[in-house]
Amino acid sequence: MKVRKAIIPAAGLGTRMLPATKTVPKEMLPMVDKPVIQYIIEEAVASGIEDILIVTNRAKSAMDDYFDYYPELEERLDRAGKEKELAEVRRAADLANIFYVRQKETKGLGHAIGRARHFVGNEPFAVLLGDDIMRAEKPVIGQLIRAAEAYSAPVVGIQRVDPEQISKYSSVKILPKEDRIYGVADMNEKPTKSERLSDYAILGRYVLTPEIFDILENLKPGFGGEIQLTDGLRELCKRRNMMAVDFEGRRYDTGNLRGFLEATIDFALEHPETGAWLKRFLKDKAEIL
Ligand code: G1P
Questions:
Q1: What is the pLDDT of residue 253?
Q2: What mean pLDDT is predicted for residues 204-217?
Q3: What value does the mean pLDDT take over residues 231-247?
Q4: 170 lines ligand 1 (CB under 6 A)
């Protein structure tokens, strides 16, 4: 099982980050000096992915433009001797083979993944949610791909969450296999605390197999009246072996204000141009507060 393709669903309306996301896609908001989606694409590329399909909608053309060349700008940077900026602008366009498909109706994550059927064909594929950024030594989707290849099975990325927070996620019933790797027996989307199947939630990363497409096509709307990927995976895990990886790394939900600010601070602290300065700035602030 070799995973070469990835899907990034990025067709949400960004309603948790308004008004900033009224006309700027949330995936294009700057995380220090790069848009959020670039971190996700870099994670996929660092994990051996070559072809990436972004599921967009009619309000998101800034994304296609970003991953294109921009001759006028590049010429201007070249003439001004701004080599570093020129290299960065070019690098974004050359990261991977990027394809786009529009989700014409906002009908949920499962419906968005269904739009990728023709792109995927008969291969296993990775899914990276467009607003979940990971900070990890080993790229998170790569950790899942390794498990998918070892077990020849679809894999979901999980971590333990506070039981009070589980209703924001899907919970997974897991069976221990080896260190950080579990079998998946069941799952449910946005459970209440008492409905949860464990304290482990799926957090934004999946490796799936093409059987999911038939399941998604026949799925009835679930939580929130939307076609839920979790409902499709629930069906899939009953039909075949599915694994979960308790991945190493920190996940940030950049689709909400707090997650976005936490990620901004952590990434800025690590950035060579801002790290030392931000540390001093935060220390000074902490003294005043
Ligand atoms: C989605 C998924 C959910 C998952 C969560 C975090 O929910 O439907 O199963 O736990 O992402 O990755 P959303 O954040 O879109 O409500």
A1: 94
A2: 97
A3: 97
A4: yes
- DSSP per-residue codes, 236-289: HHHHS--EEEE-SSEEEETTSHHHHHHHHHHHHHHSTTTHHHHHHHHHHHHHH-
Q: Is the CB of 169 under 6 A from ligand 1?
A: yes
Tell me the CA distances in angstroms from 279 to 206, 251, 252, 265, 272, one per residue in order: 35, 22, 20, 10, 12
The overall average pLDDT reported for the chain is 95
Tell how far the Cα of 118 is from the centroid of ligand 1, in angstroms: 24
Question: 198: Cβ below 6 Å to ligand 1?
Answer: no
* 280 CA distance to ligand 1 middle (Å): 36
Note the pLDDT of residue 289. Answer: 81
* CA atoms lying within 13 Å on the CB side of residue 21: 23
Residue with CA closest to ligand 1 atom 9 = 170
CA of 224 to the centre of ligand 1 (A): 12
What is the pLDDT at residue 15? Answer: 87
- Tell me: pLDDT of 13 over 90: no
14 has a pLDDT exceeding 90: no
Strand segments, DSSP code E, in 66-108 are 97-102
The CB of 201 under 6 Å from ligand 1? The reply is yes
**Alpha-carbon separation of residue 254 from 27, 37, 124, 226, 258 (angstroms):** 8, 10, 27, 21, 8
pLDDT at residue number 184:
97
Distance 169 CA to ligand 1 centre (A): 5
**Ligand 1 atom nearest to 228, measured from its CA:** 8
Question: What average pLDDT score do residues 234-257 get?
Answer: 96
